[in-house]
Design a protein that fits this description.
Blueprint (H helix, E strand, L loop, with lengths): L8 H4 L11 H7 L3 H16 L8 H13 L4 H8 L5 H8 L2
């Protein structure tokens, strides 16, 4: 999660920080579109690998799935929508194979 303001060390010292992954079983139920799920997994992997301060939440994947189902968005439309506001460098790192 990328907050607007970075927490200071004294605040962070009060918490135990744990890494948590997304619930794949839940996402399979909520997002039946297999190409979209595979795309999302690739984006998440590249976000982590490149230490980008970005996220692709289950909620966002659900919204993108709805755009594909209800507004006839293509995968290209989905990419354009999702990467709006990203720098060219961030986008290229997130899309790398």
């Amino acid at each position: 999660y990328c907050g607007r303001n970075e927490m200071d060390v004294a605040t962070l010292d009060r918490f135990v920080l744990l890494e948590m992954d997304y619930d794949k079983d839940l996402e399979t139920k909520l997002i039946p579109n297999e190409p979209l799920k595979q795309w999302g997994e690739k984006i998440r992997k590249n976000i982590t690998k490149n230490k980008l301060e970005r996220i692709l939440s289950t909620r966002k994947l659900q919204a993108l799935n709805s755009l594909m189902n209800e507004a006839d968005f293509t995968m290209k439309d989905i990419e354009n929508h999702y990467f709006m506001g990203w720098s060219a460098d961030e986008k290229s790192k997130a899309l790398a194979y």
